[in-house]
Specification:
Elements (H helix, E strand, L loop, with lengths): L6 H26 L5 H19 L3 H22 L4 H22 L4 H9 L7 H20 L1 H9 L1 H6 L4 H18 L9 H12 L6 H26 L3 H30 L22
């Protein structure tokens, strides 16, 4: 039986494909800035928003967007002022976010199943309203990351040079923070807040094995993210496995395959190179007891 004949599976597939494109498009900038784990930190803050929404009988996704956005802006301002290291600020997000989320969910009437659906994703429960939200916000993130690529690359590569060049560095940094929060939040319904960071980072790390330029790496990462999302949903539908975990494991499997293939290709190229020609007698260094003529 073809499960994709059902509307809920089609909604799950479309939502996953949008996330599969948007997450690596944003993740390449985070990797460039060595902030690969910021998605996890913001995801934990989003979990606090989910708990607040359940407790207040409001839309958990909407409250999570607001909480994650505030958390992302705060972490960016702390990082920019340099009073707290990035690692320490991320640790505060990790611990405070998940503790607040668990506490608020415990105070609400929600069951543990509701919490798990946000932690690990629940694509098959994606409603039409959820899908519209994912499409609009996901496409907005995707367009911003592609359209502003030169400016964002300059900021991520050398912030001081970008500031001297006249780029609005603070605005661009805040844009990255907000789009990260939005991406993490809309991905809660697909791969979950605990796994979205992998979809931001792993396709980028895979693309870096075989590409050199920034633009080609970005395109390859988006292609790999699209493949992992689509194939993950298909595997989940056929094998009855959690969609979010299936997507992430396929992304990691792709990384291993590409890394091994790239290493093998480099080894073959090294062996196929002609050996260095032996030094001929005419150009050999004279013995120590002889003096070379000028």
């Amino acid at each position: 039986m073809d499960l994709f004949q059902y509307d809920f599976m089609l909604r799950a597939l479309v939502g996953a494909l949008v996330i599969g494109l948007a997450a690596p498009a944003l993740g390449i900038y985070l990797v460039q800035r060595r902030l690969a784990l910021i998605g996890d930190g913001i995801g934990h803050v989003a979990l606090t928003g989910v708990g607040a929404g359940l407790l207040l009988n409001r839309s958990p996704v909407l409250v999570a967007v607001l909480a994650a956005t505030v958390g992302a802006i705060v972490i960016e301002l702390v990082r920019a002022r340099g009073r707290t290291s990035g690692d320490l600020a991320l640790a505060l997000l990790f611990y405070g976010g998940i503790a607040g989320g668990v506490l608020l969910v415990g105070l609400s009437d929600a069951s543990s199943a509701s919490l798990n659906s946000y932690l690990f994703g629940s694509l098959i429960t994606t409603s039409r309203g959820d899908l519209v939200t994912i499409l609009l916000l996901g496409l907005a993130v995707l367009v911003a990351m592609v359209a502003l690529r030169p400016a964002l690359f300059a900021v991520c590569h050398d912030e001081e040079y970008a500031r001297v060049s006249g780029l609005p560095v603070r605005t661009l940094n805040l844009l990255l923070a907000v789009t990260t929060a939005v991406t993490v939040t809309i991905a809660m319904r697909s791969v979950g807040v605990l796994l979205i960071s992998a979809l931001m980072v792993v396709p980028v790390a895979t693309a870096q094995q075989v590409t050199r330029g920034f633009a080609s790496t970005m395109a390859a990462a988006m292609t790999l993210g699209l493949f992992a999302a689509g194939a993950g949903v298909a595997v989940a539908a056929g094998a009855d496995t959690p969609p979010g975990a299936s997507v992430v494991l396929l992304a990691i499997a792709s990384f291993l395959v590409v890394a091994l293939a790239a290493a093998g290709w480099r080894a073959v190229r090294r062996r196929s190179r002609p050996a260095a020609a032996p030094v001929t007698e005419a150009f050999a260094e004279p013995p120590e007891h002889e003096v070379a003529l000028p």
